[in-house]
Give the backbone structure.
Amino acid sequence: MEDLAALFNAFYTRFVLRDLLAKITPGTIVLVAISTIFIWQPENVAHYLAGLTFWAWTILLAFSWITGITIQSIGEWLEKRKEGWGIRYYPKDEFDDNHKEWFKFLVAFSHSDRVTDADKKRAERYAVIKEACGIGSIAFLIVSSLLAVKIVFLLVVSVYDTMGILLIGLIIAIIFTFSLNRMNKEHVQRHYDYMLAVIDC
C-alpha cells in the first residue's frame, strides 16, 4: 500500500498526473469526438481502439497530449479575448492580470520555511484540478461546436434519424463546458487562498 501511495505522490510531484488529467484526457475527448462525429460510427472507433498495439497507443497518447496543449492554447487565447470564457491560472484581481507577479508568488510559496511537503502536495492538487477543469471546459466547448456543426449539416441535408442523440450529446457537452469552466475559476481562487493561508499562518 505504501508503494502505491509513493507512486501516486510521484505522479503529483512529477506532473505526470497533471499531464494525464489536464492534457491527455481533454485531447482524447476531442479526438474521439472528431472521429465519432465526422469519420466513423462509435462502435467502429471502439473496435479500432481495441486493436491498437502498445506503440500505436503510445503514439495516440502523445498526439492526445499535443491536442491537449492545443486546447490549452485556445483556452488561454479565449480568456484574453473574452474574460471568463477561457482558462485562468491565478486570480486576476490579486495580481492585476500580471503573470510575473503570480510566478513570484509561486516561488515564494515553494521556498517558504512554513511550507511542508504535504502543503506542496495539496497546492499541486488544486493546480491539477484547476488546469484539468480549464482545459476540459475548452475541450467540451470544441465538442459542442462540432456537434452543432453536425446538427446544422444534417438539417440542411434533411437527415433526422440521428438528430435526437446528437442533441442530447450537445446538451451534455454544453453542461460540461459551463460546469468545468466554473470549477476552473473556483479552483483558481481556492489554490491561491490555500497557498496564502499556508504562508501567512
Notes: Residues 75 and 136 are 10 Å apart (CA to CA). The chain has one domain: 2-200. Helices lie at 2-13, 16-39, 42-50, 54-81, 92-95, 99-111, 117-156, 163-200. The radius of gyration is 20 Å.
